What we know:
The complex is a heterotrimer.
Chain A: E1 3-6, H1 16-20, E2 26-28, E3 40-42, H2 54-58, E4 64-67
Antiparallel strand pairs in A: 1-4, 2-3
Chain B: E1 4-9, H1 10-20, E2 25-28, H2 35-47, E3 51-54, H3 58-70, E4 75-79, H4 81-86, H5 88-96, E5 101-107, H6 123-127, E6 138-140, H7 145-162, E7 165-171, H8 172-176, E8 178-183, H9 191-194, E9 211-212, H10 221-239, E10 243-246, E11 253-256, H11 259-274, E12 279-284, E13 286-288, H12 292-301, E14 306-311, H13 317-325, E15 330-335, H14 344-353
Parallel strand pairs in B: 2-3, 2-4, 4-5, 5-7, 6-7, 11-12, 11-14, 14-15
Antiparallel strand pairs in B: 1-8, 6-13, 10-12
Chain C: E1 3-5, H1 23-37, E2 44-47, H2 56-59, E3 63-65, H3 72-82, E4 87-93, H4 94-98, H5 102-110, E5 116-121, H6 151-154, H7 160-165, E6 170-177, H8 181-199, E7 204-210, H9 214-217, H10 221-235, E8 239-240
Parallel strand pairs in C: 2-3, 2-4, 4-5, 5-7, 6-7
Antiparallel strand pairs in C: 6-8
Amino acid sequence: xxxIKINQEKCKGCLLCISFCPKGLIQLSKKINLQGYRPVEFNxxxxxxxxxxxxxxxxxxxxxEVFK
Amino acid sequence: xVNKKILITGNEAIxxxxxxxxxxxxxxxxxxxxxxxxxxxxxxMPKAKRxxxxxxxxxxxxxxxxxxxxxxxRAMTSSSSPGISLKQEGISYLAxxxxxxxxxxxxxxxxxxxxxxxxxxxxFQATRAGGHGDYHCIVLAPFSIQESYDFMKLAFDLADKYRxxxxxxxxxxxxxxxxxxxxxxxxxxxxAIHHTPKWAISGCLRRKPNVIRSLYLKxxxxxxxxxxxxxxxxxxxxxxxRYEILYLExxxxxxxxxxxMARIVKSVVKKLRQKGKKIGLIRPITLWPFPEKIFQxxxxxxxxxxxLVVEMSYxxxxxxxxxxxxxxxKVEFLGRAGGGIPxxxxxxxxxxxx
Amino acid sequence: xxxxxxxxxxxxxxxxxxxxxCGHGITQRLIAEVIDELKIREKVIGVCPVGCAVVxxxxxxxxxxxxxxxxxxxxATGIKRVRPKNIVFTYQxxxxxxxIGTNETIHAANRGEKLTAIFINNxxxxxxxxxxxxxxxxGQKTITTPQGRKKEKEGYPLxxxxxxAILPAVKYIARVALFSPQEVLKAxxxxxxxxxxxxxxxxxxxxxxxxPCPTYWKLSPKAAMDWIKDVMIxxxxxxxxx
Lengths: 68, 354, 242
């Protein structure tokens, strides 16, 4: 099943990936990274990732890798 | 081509000198009194398989030179006083990014639109880093058609050696007049083909990428670059100052002039020597680095020397002479600008009054 | 399981200084992807602007140079004329390309320099704190148009792409936007064509990218994307202009 890997240290918490994920599988995490932002995290328990690449395409900080 | 002699204008001699020195790229914009240089390059660069562009402005031209130089090629632009004012930002960038380039200023009367006659009113602009920041161009001042040609190779060589812009300070008279030019064994160095500097941007094949920049935002980094530049300027000052001297051994009055002015002053010195007057001449060839050492040496060796600085300006090189002498000798000045040129009679009169 | 998407090789693994939701990050990644896919990394020379993307050369992993503000297309002309086999592109904001650099832009385009120009239009000057840009919309509030841009005082948003389209030596102009992953893919395709045109020696190509500036639009990143979709494209229509 496809999945994504998010680099939480590069994430700036812009939340664009959350807006564009068609399955709602990304959410704000409770952590704070070294930059001082609250990064997002992938929650595969919420449903099946399609490997559609929307999150990776819109991410402005090259945080997301997608595996299928 | 051994010892061929041709009759040519100063502007064209600069162009020919540049091509024979391996200049690969020229960008320029028309402005009087250097248009002959631009049109010479338009004609001759393509024939020599080099690149000529008539740019849309002086600003664009200096930035095209920045690009061509960043890409590792010998690049040059030319203009006259107001156009050189436009290029100042670009020259500052060349100095900051440590790029070699040659810029030719065929000086005309100013300030503002001025006129198209010869003047020497851009000395400050040339030697005091006309643009922003702590930097210097090496400044060469030819005084003959021969030097206009010969100094181009020197200019490109110095620019490459020190990764620094070099300014040629000519003027409307030198640009327009014609004299014989002796072509020695002029070495054609199609520089582009022979050698790409290791810092140049040429495509990162088989090496780490290069970046050409003058911006350093991180704390302390720009200061380091500036210290590096200052070290470079110190070295240039020690090694590259050039000048010509005439009759200095027993001179009591020393005239100081450069460029076209020096031609007239030389005549004066020879005339007055024939009459038994003990006068001499120092003709700075590099205006930056200014040849201070000869002034310091003379002022220490002889007491009571008098210097007369003659310029087609209201006293610009005068300041460098005063700085070099540091109060140890008397300095007088004679100058006219705005197209006016001190005549032999005026200079002789002034010398006698000293 | 295969990796089907990762940051391109020509992009360094580095945290950028761009604001959260800034379009520079997306566009610079697209350019790096295109360069990798076209296999031109070792031929490419990038000319970086003055603006928020002034340090784009810290993010890209190929030969780059800075340029004085607005002069990138003159610098690029100098590079390309002496190294015609290299692929030379500029990356410029709305001030760089359409205010101070308008002269260089028009003339490089008019001469048909074989260059690729990527024009980031975010309708504001970001780096210097949010001033009006030539492309700022009427009524848009910026720190130099605090009452909103007025046509009587500040004129209209400048359509540099449409202006350049009338020049015969210009071969390709496209306007794209970044407001959704689908649009990002279209933007990538346009950028690819603009680079391919240079590889095929076809002439001047420009891609105008409508890009979000959440900070100076005073919108969240998603709201900024929506503003492009709902407002900006009405003033700056998308599609192939030439």
